[in-house]
């Protein structure tokens, strides 16, 4: 049986060569975060049981109690763990190839394309840039991390396509690229015209919906009847085979329940993602999704970062609470000003009833809020 080999090295040409070497001999790859604390790396190795670990020198060391993979398995990718313990998502070679060709077809790329990978390669958003280029034969440049000046220099030197999260987009000149895939967190409404809003997750093998439209070979449906929002379900060849512990989250018909809530817009039937099902705030019988409120609050120049959550309330069931990191702690925003701002753009019941000023918000390396770690 093939082995699972963990890659514990910085992003760059060496990572790409190691990935190709492991794939050529028929083994699967588990990418690790080279900057993660030793304890976190040890926990992942214990949880996912690779046979060996390859470091930045190319040397491999054996691990105890290895568990083999199936012959067609290509990757085991840890989920971000934003809502709990990371899971090991097993993606087959067929799934990785299906994702590469579906995304490439949707972007209408030409032989002149040159991908730039600067997202962490232990997450699917960064890793899929590398695998997409390898499978389709596109040119590729890999950076060990996101550095705005280096990213812009790469674009001026010929890189045409890149995958970013919104916080990174605000730190570069986006006009330098032909196409920018955006994912990982809430997509700003005023994004540049050369950006593509990508919806997907580790279990779907990267983005499977671009600007609201499913990619070729991808089916999307809503788990509720009629036009009301419901859970988003996905079926495609890009989906995971199973988790590393052997459990398969797909139903008997091949549908994967994402845990996200959304609806299909009237007319063009584009997918509109409301948010995670467990993030919905019900206040006074009205539904409030955090992300639209956060987007409005973030437009206040006094707000550096923000998270919107629901907290128990005797009168309203839940009250909307804004946790704000101020730009200047000496001059923070006031609750009445934030409420007025929200009411100008959203229904009045969306306005926060409480403001908590905090020093920082817990986020993953890709900028996703760790909502489970927010103050109670």
Any descriptors?
376 residues, alpha/beta, seven-stranded mixed sheet, 8 helices, Rossmann fold, 2 domains, globular, four-stranded mixed sheet, GMP Synthetase, Chain A, domain 3
Topology:
Elements: E1 4-8, H1 13-24, E2 28-31, H2 38-48, E3 52-55, E4 60-62, E5 73-78, E6 88-92, H3 93-107, E7 114-117, H4 124-136, E8 139-142, H5 148-156, E9 161-164, H6 166-169, E10 179-182, E11 195-201, E12 206-210, E13 213-214, E14 219-222, E15 230-235, E16 242-243, E17 256-264, E18 271-276, E19 281-283, E20 286-288, H7 290-298, E21 303-313, E22 317-326, H8 335-345, E23 354-357
Parallel strand pairs: 1-2, 1-3, 7-8, 7-9, 9-10, 10-11, 22-23
Antiparallel strand pairs: 3-4, 5-6, 6-16, 11-12, 12-13, 14-15, 15-17, 17-18, 19-20, 21-22
Helix pairs in contact: 3-4
Brief overview:
With 376 residues, the chain is α/β, with parallel strands linked by helices. It has helices at residues 13-24, 38-48, 93-107, 124-136, 148-156, 166-169, 290-298, 335-345, and strands at 4-8, 28-31, 52-55, 60-62, 73-78, 88-92, 114-117, 139-142, 161-164, 179-182, 195-201, 206-210, 213-214, 219-222, 230-235, 242-243, 256-264, 271-276, 281-283, 286-288, 303-313, 317-326, 354-357.
């Amino acid at each position: 049986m093939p082995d699972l080999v963990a890659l514990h090295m910085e992003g760059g040409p060496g990572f790409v060569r190691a990935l190709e070497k492991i794939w050529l001999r028929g083994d699967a790859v588990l990418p690790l975060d080279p900057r993660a604390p030793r304890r976190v790396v040890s926990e992942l190795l214990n949880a996912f049981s690779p046979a060996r670990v390859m470091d930045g020198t190319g040397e491999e060391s054996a691990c105890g109690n290895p568990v083999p993979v199936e012959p067609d398995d290509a990757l085991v990718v840890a989920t971000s763990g934003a809502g709990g313990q990371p899971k090991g998502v097993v993606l087959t070679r067929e799934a990785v190839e299906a994702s590469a060709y579906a995304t490439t077809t949707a972007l209408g790329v030409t032989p002149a394309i040159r991908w730039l990978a600067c997202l962490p390669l232990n997450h699917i958003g960064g890793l899929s840039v590398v695998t997409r280029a390898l499978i389709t034969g596109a040119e590729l440049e890999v950076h060990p991390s996101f550095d705005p000046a280096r990213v812009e220099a790469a674009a001026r030197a010929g890189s045409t396509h890149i995958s970013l999260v919104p916080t990174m987009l605000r730190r570069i000149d986006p006009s330098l690229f032909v196409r920018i895939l955006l994912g990982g967190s809430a997509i700003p409404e005023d994004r540049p015209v050369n950006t593509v809003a990508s919806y997907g997750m580790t279990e779907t093998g990267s983005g499977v919906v671009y600007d609201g439209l499913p990619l070729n070979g991808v089916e999307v449906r809503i788990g509720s009847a009629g036009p009301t929002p419901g859970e988003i379900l996905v079926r495609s060849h890009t989906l995971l085979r199973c988790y590393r512990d052997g459990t398969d989250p797909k139903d008997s018909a091949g549908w994967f329940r994402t845990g996200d809530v959304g609806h299909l817009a009237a007319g063009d039937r584009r997918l509109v993602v409301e948010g995670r099902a467990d993030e919905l705030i019900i206040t006074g019988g009205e539904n409030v999704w955090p992300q639209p409120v956060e987007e409005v609050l973030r437009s206040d120049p006094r707000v550096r970062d923000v998270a919107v959550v629901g907290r128990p309330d005797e009168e309203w069931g839940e009250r909307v609470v804004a946790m704000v990191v101020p730009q200047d702690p000496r001059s923070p925003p006031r609750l009445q000003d934030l409420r007025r701002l929200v009411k100008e753009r959203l229904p009045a019941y969306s306005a926060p009833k409480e403001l908590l000023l905090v020093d920082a918000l817990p986020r993953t390396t890709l900028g996703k809020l760790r909502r489970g770690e927010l103050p109670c």
